[in-house]
């Protein structure tokens, strides 16, 4: 086996570590959710949900909803524990572990949206990265494909063709293959920003249809709101504005990621700046909610991948400026 096939690519290590860390946080989140599942606050929230549309159309009791949430949480925890073990096995170069992890990631993503927050989405994204190059080649025991400019070029041989009929020499440079770190950054950004957009849109819709339920939850999670003297109108306006900014920011990140994948240097610079600002804001928001760590980790990975030497060299090719940090 050659050195190229025995050395684990950094993208594979990154994806495997993401799976294990995210799986661990899902277990912690499930433990916290289950511990509060039968609390008075949770029961009151469920009762209020079942008393108003669309909850009153489900024909469920409070105990039934609690049982459903409990089973869902247990499934998420079991899948998360399996994902941690399978993530380690993938780092040991097990193709079967990658396949099983892909199957486990589906129920983990679905149940994790209820019990594990955004962390289950990180497992799904990291698992998808394991099917991309160079992880795909490494797990298959093959050499990762090299960019066109790194491939050996055969030396020209002398021929007897008269100079008068020799074809003109081409001065164009063949298109360079997009580096894997750039592809990974694009995938991470599109998936994470897409999930943030969908979740934010769902929150705005829920707030528009069930404002009392959302306001009660905000007061429960932040008891200081009552003491701060903020009115309901202020909370409603702040929620709509923050939701709109979140959705616009997600769409901007997706657009920049698509243009970055197309080789636009200015888009890569914009994506680096966008991701850096997002990382700082999300780390600050993580003090109130651990769910904010998910986009923070994704943003940090995006900046790191786009700042790699091969990524900057690719954007520098054909007059493309490298992304600024």
From TrEMBL:
Record keywords, A-Z: Membrane, Transmembrane, Transmembrane helix
Positions with biased composition (Low complexity): 154-174
Residue segments, region Disordered: 141-179
Transmembrane domains' residue ranges: 12-31, 68-88, 100-132, 185-209, 230-258, 270-303
Record carries keyword Nucleus: no
Signal peptide residues on this chain, from the entry's feature table: none
Descriptive protein name: DUF4064 domain-containing protein
Source species of the chain: Nocardioides piscis
Organism placement in taxonomy: Bacteria, Bacillati, Actinomycetota, Actinomycetes, Propionibacteriales
